[in-house]
């Protein structure tokens, strides 16, 4: 008997690989075993107990629902066996098990029972090849996280954002520079490698909260539509090593680390540094220069970043500041966030009064103005925002009672703070 285990999140891929293998061999019927404590023993142990003690009898296989996309699921074998043949035609038995964290099993696995080890190994290897060929993660947007059961790791599918270039308001030339460093390298990977250049790249977007760093990342997810995207935030940053391994396997790929300063703060603040800092550095170094992998990092505190991350070539190749929008940017943001409504107000006073504010602030301003218009004129056809609506919303947001709200939206510090 030869077996192989994978992380719980690979269950759908294991099912895809086994299904493809059985299709190659002319299909086979799944069967199961009836009896207690099946998950605690391997196939050989189950056979022994069945033959000598009669603990198990043939029964139906167990199935579980697993995700294979943002809005798509499939049935996977939780515990089941299939009689089939090895690539050389000799008989083998496959046993598939899903993870069962309630009973301490946090991996999925396949067991191959054959007359000899070589036959079992060849069968197992072919299943692995087919798992890779039919990987459900390829080309998806994925988010790492944890479940409530023993903190076992999970992967969730996210819808791919759809943003056009005119929905991203940055300083002049900034978006073109960012796209050249990410999208253009992906488009010209073959030529760059032929010229002896590396294609792995690291991009750091930095600036105050609310200026559009995450929005820009979402735009790049759309532009890199053929890439697998792996998003790490919060506690999931502890899975950076797994994310990097997955990115390497599923390239072209993108690894997004939001608020990277949470784990990559300069070691001068602490002699040992954050324990995940070294995992991040190792993950970025462990991917070869010929790999089509992009690391997208964001931070609100670029000055606090560890020098080994920010200053070493090959980790971060380009740092782009996303500042508070200037007057031109605020005007563009007003147009962007007023789509779907009619604005009769003069934008000039609002543009002047929002100096130093962020994109998040202006987005919320338009929402509040629209709500005021809807409440004040419920019978009006469509949403028409006038001077009074915008001025009232701005006064509300600038009120002393809204200081914390402004801070959360990235507003500059109040005078004297």
Describe this structure in words.
This is ATP-binding protein. Residues 199-326 form the AAA+ ATPase domain. Belongs to the AAA ATPase family. Keywords: ATP-binding, Nucleotide-binding. By secondary structure, the chain is of the alpha/beta class. 37% of the residues lie in helices and 22% in strands. Strands 1, 2, 3, 4, 5, 6 and 7 form a 7-stranded antiparallel β-sheet that branches. The N and C termini lie far apart (69 Å). The mean pLDDT is 86. It folds into 3 domains: 2-133, no CATH class; 158-321, P-loop containing nucleotide triphosphate hydrolases (Rossmann fold); 327-408, Helicase, Ruva Protein, domain 3 (Orthogonal Bundle), CATH 1.10.8.
User: What's the main sheet like?
Assistant: 7 strands, antiparallel
Fold-level CATH name of the largest domain: Rossmann fold
Question: Which CATH class of the largest domain?
Answer: Alpha Beta
Ranges where pLDDT stays below 50 over 5 or more residues in a row are none
Shape: elongated
Query: So what's the oligomer here?
Result: single chain
- How many domains, in number, for the residues? 3
Q: What's the CATH superfamily of the largest domain, by name? A: P-loop containing nucleotide triphosphate hydrolases
* Strand percent estimate: 15-25%
Distance between the termini: 69 Å
GO molecular function, one term: ATP binding
Protein name: ATP-binding protein
Keywords: ATP-binding, Nucleotide-binding
Family: Belongs to the AAA ATPase family.
